[in-house]
Amino acid sequence: VFGDITRTYRMADGATIMQLGCPSQPFCAYFPRETRDLAGFIERCFFGHGKANYLYFSGELSLFQDQPQITIERLEQVSSCPPRTRAKDAPVEV
């Protein structure tokens, strides 16, 4: 998922929620308490005036209170570069 970070929320349990995109079409990246350092790094480096507020997020999508979200548990799930795509006819390794 490609999204621009528009707002961050720190939760009482230590988790962080980053609102991605516009408020009229809510979508969030959820960082559990265990990944709060990663959320803080992303907030410092990519969120704010003059910074590239967009990132690519990978992982399973879910619904929380009727809003789509993606849970971020590892650094590898977040990138400032687009994901690599496999060539259409490339063999799949098993």
Strand percentage lies at 35-45%
Query: N- to C-terminal separation?
Result: 25 Å
Spatial arrangement of strands, main beta sheet:
5-6-3-2-1-4-7
**What is the helix content?**
10-25%
Shape: globular
- SSE string: EEEHEEEE
Estimated radius of gyration: 14 Å
- Determine the oligomeric state from the structure: single chain
Q: Which stretches of 5+ consecutive residues score pLDDT under 50?
A: none
Average pLDDT confidence is 84
Number of helices: 1
Main structural class: mainly beta
The profile of the biggest β sheet is:
7 strands, mixed
Question: How many E-type strands?
Answer: 7
Describe this structure in words.
By secondary structure, this protein is mainly beta. It is built from 1 helix and 7 strands, in the order E-E-E-H-E-E-E-E. It has one helix spanning 36-46; strands at residues 2-10, 16-20, 27-31, 54-57, 61-64, 67-71, 78-79. Strands 5-6-3-2-1-4-7 form a 7-stranded mixed beta sheet, with helices on one face. The radius of gyration is 14 Å and the shape is globular. The two termini are 25 Å apart. 17% of the residues are buried.
Give the tags:
seven-stranded mixed sheet, mainly beta, 1 helix, 7 strands, 94 residues
